[in-house]
UniProtKB/TrEMBL annotation:
Pfam families attached to this UniProt entry: TM_HPP
UniProt keyword annotations, A-Z: Membrane, Transmembrane, Transmembrane helix
Sequence ranges assigned to domain HPP transmembrane region in this UniProt record: 22-179
Positions in coiled-coil regions: none
Keyword Nucleotide-binding found: no
Entry protein name: HPP family
Ranges that cross the membrane: 28-49, 55-72, 148-169
Length: 202
């Protein structure tokens, strides 16, 4: 019992220590990733879509940026979760809005609750997805008019932009790796290690 308590205490101290470390390099790349990811979406909206009054920049992308640029090792920040969570939640939000469009006290909780369960069921849990579903039922103006096009743009198109920027900035240094634990990254590391070993033999 004492050993367990001591071990728990040591682990807790280590976790608290790690959480309080200030890694300026990590913060720098997180800043750049978020800046360019959101910046690209905002640039497209302000310069290409102003005439049609289309909505390309939605609030839930800000929350996604916190995860995919600032917490890149989190299971909730992985590409499957980013894209799947947003797209499925958008589908749920639009569907609920079409069924109960004028009863916000019912459509809002239904959209969020169903999106959470669907993300859990498909293993694509991404917290900002709940906001994407809520935006579909609670917004006024252009978004309700988009109907299922809302799923394609701004949701899917915006997710792809955020993901491409994340793949670049989150792998730009050896200390950052995104996606985490992916087959592709493991394969690339093995290939790199094998090539390095072959060079050393020569």
């Amino acid at each position: 019992m004492k050993k367990t308590i001591k071990r728990t205490f040591r682990v807790s101290k280590y976790v608290i220590y790690k959480e309080t470390l200030v890694d300026y390099k990590e913060h720098f790349w997180s800043f750049l990733g978020a800046f360019f990811g959101i910046g690209l979406i905002a640039f497209i909206q302000s310069h290409s879509l102003a005439e049609t009054e289309n909505i390309f920049l939605i609030g839930s992308f800000g929350a996604s940026s916190v995860l995919i640029y600032g917490a890149i090792q989190s299971p909730l920040a992985q590409p499957r979760n980013l894209v799947g969570g947003h797209v499925l939640s958008a589908l749920v939000g639009v569907t609920v809005f079409k069924i109960v469009p004028d009863i916000i006290w019912l459509s809002a909780p239904l959209a969020v609750a169903f999106s959470i369960v669907l993300m859990q069921y498909t293993k694509t849990l991404h917290p900002p997805g709940g906001a994407t579903a809520l935006i579909a039922v609670s917004s006024t103006g252009k978004i309700p008019e988009l109907e299922y096009w809302y799923v394609i743009s701004p949701v899917l198109s915006g997710c792809i932009i955020l993901l491409l920027v994340a793949l670049f900035f989150n792998n730009i240094t050896p200390n950052r790796s995104y996606p985490s634990h992916s087959r592709l990254m493991r394969l690339l590391r093995k290939k790199h290690a094998h090539g390095h070993a072959q060079k050393m033999k020569k």
